[in-house]
User: What shape does this take?
Amino acid sequence: MTIATVLAARDDTRLPTRIARSRLAVATDTGLRTEDFDAWLAGRRAAHRFTVERVPLTKIDGWSFEPDGGNLVHRSGRFFTVEGLHAVIDGREWQQPIIVQPEVGILGILAKEFDGVLHFLMQAKMEPGNPGLLQLSPTVQATHSNYTGVHRGAEVRYLEYFIRPARGRVLTDVLQSEHGSWFLCKSNRNMIVETFDDVPPDDDFCWLTLGQIGELLHRDNVVNMDARSILACAPTAPVELGAVSSDMDVLSWFTNERARHDVRARRIPLAAVADWVRTDDHIQHVGNRYFRVSGVSVEAGNREVTSWMQPLIEPVGMSLCAFLVRRFGGVPHLLVHARTEGGLLDTVELGPTVQCTPENYAHLAEPERPPFLDLVRRAAADRIRYDAVHSDEGGRFLNAVSRYLLVEAGEVEVGAEPPPGYAWVTPGQLNSLARHGHYLNMQARTLLAVIGLLNGLL
Amino acid sequence: MTIATVLAARDDTRLPTRIARSRLAVATDTGLRTEDFDAWLAGRRAAHRFTVERVPLTKIDGWSFEPDGGNLVHRSGRFFTVEGLHAVIDGREWQQPIIVQPEVGILGILAKEFDGVLHFLMQAKMEPGNPGLLQLSPTVQATHSNYTGVHRGAEVRYLEYFIRPARGRVLTDVLQSEHGSWFLCKSNRNMIVETFDDVPPDDDFCWLTLGQIGELLHRDNVVNMDARSILACAPTAPVELGAVSSDMDVLSWFTNERARHDVRARRIPLAAVADWVRTDDHIQHVGNRYFRVSGVSVEAGNREVTSWMQPLIEPVGMSLCAFLVRRFGGVPHLLVHARTEGGLLDTVELGPTVQCTPENYAHLAEPERPPFLDLVRRAAADRIRYDAVHSDEGGRFLNAVSRYLLVEAGEVEVGAEPPPGYAWVTPGQLNSLARHGHYLNMQARTLLAVIGLLNGLL
Assistant: This one.
């Protein structure tokens, strides 16, 4: 925190306008031109040698199953472990493997104004689990191990801007949760720091406006999860004056959702997890549902360390994440769902209207499938405002792809008074909640970034 | 959440003015006159028969030590348990008994406008651990057991206004943490609901303005903890335009505090807790420090159940909670401390500048005692803006009293750039954080309520 002898204004009232200007700027003079993006990304891919190969879990170098309890751990005792979770949510009980990584990483985007327009320093970063390997990523993705040197690798470029933000102006800085189905109470620091230094981009980096990043969000598997998460926390959404529910009523509804669910979860040894089995290759569900834990061997030319092996979480099917959208009094509203997940720090977070892997429910009759799933799947093309595939963080997840949708709904499909656990809120209301941690889950943040960065979407 | 066909304004812009009007109203025509308060409270005390007697822990009816692990539990399996906690904070390791109560209670104050001034329905409520037994309490204090009927007692009066807030207008509704040193991840719902119904107060209830409650906060052990906690969450503080740090910089500092501390805590069996012993009478620390677990037998004439026994946490000494106050550019600022506590849900919360039990440090030299403790204790009378004793919730704590202070500091004692872990923030900044959960700890909320309700204090 910087201390001024003169008082600072409590609110940076110019920021929303500056963000809006960057969102409207779909071209840039200073940064990378959008039409050059594909060639640039291909160039970065060609400039390094990346190979990722599957390796049996029993053969991943540096990792082993603990003799006592069977947890999957690294020999250094750092990075993360795969352990077991016993969850009881509102009486429903199950066990599953879960990633335990009780440390806070930094996800940071450096911003700088060129010709009056905020640009953001994005990185072409390889992660072994990414479809396409390289994706457009934040300036910095540093685990605690990264910045304390456990990797024994090269320094993380530009990290100093986020460790000592006094060098610039902090535009966003909030702890947000990772996936509650796969991580135990994991959160990362989502930061945007504006710099006034002269910062020439390194080879794997480029300056882009928000409007340009928005356009790239139309493409599948280009903008990585961490970038989407951070951008959702910036004040990109309009501040609507009116909404179906006041901000206080939204908070009160959310508080009630937190209070009414009984979520109890505890760590158990991985070997004790019922209904999951360990083979040489994987840890997997006996019904082959949900996800597997798989191993990969990685060679990379531009990473801190040039080769390593590691386990990754590999979902079994593609998931579907969709917000239903309705206009009330001309103002777009999103139907949010207060979701319980076993690994969340605090009971529930707000997710999209639909968030599931449809094939897990294919054998059920429609009334037993998740609410609104079939409505979203059957939506006519003219109701679909957004449709793209994005993947989850490739440092932990292997080909974890989700189809993200924004679907217009009408009075016929969903009334103004939705079922328990659901509420109509505006993008601006979600955006102001995203200033604080643990209100919005990762999937809701991806869709909020889409809404905030794409011009004229809703 | 109420759904209107017409959109609601996102912000209730009239509320801060209405709150300010109630704060300025130190007299009332409709409610209980302040000069009649003592007689009224004495009358309520006389109207009921209350006795609280100490009972050895081994003799508290309905409670027993589990054969396996020694946790102290109620025969119904409900209410709460006393278990063990193993905490490791930034490498410092210890064990202690801790209250486990994984359910969310409702703390609610009903509000209503009379003659244009908001009044609040307060209750003279007996809790066995309260000094003086009866204190001025919220309209409703309901544990989950209360409102689901585990007590098998009488209904909780006025509870319906908080279970179905659609009957009124929600002014405040937020989950706030209880004490992180005594409770494991416990939070309660802090609510203020304005009603438009005609609500005649029952015998044990009275209508008071915020100004009147503020005056009562000058007295020792009158306004109970839950009432202070709720009132801290209402928008009582001024919205200062300027501050030493912008709101974003305060959030960023707080995020960094959360990220930089390594807090790991896990439940262990009570019998396994090192350095604590169980006698017939108590569970206590071998050095007789910190607190004891004691038993009481209660008879009460106006409670849902007329007699019961229970364990209570009994602190060994009186604690001291103080904010240092400094003006920058004419605007008062409080020196907050980002405190780690073993039972907090998420690493740190903001506490007062000083929060400790001084006698635990009496044997140490001054530089080894908590920062600013001696500065506060030596403060000249003309530096002290507020000085009163308040107790913690008497349903769980026995004579848990703290001296609360607001002490003016100068440039000489604390610079504009305080030590790591401390920051200067305005009451308005703290108040806007209190709209969300887990930013402010209980002790900071008490002092924030004091600042928000007492006219002309800072």
Chain A has a mean pLDDT of 93. Chain A touches chain B through 62 residues (CB under 8 Å). The longest strand of chain A covers residues 105-114.
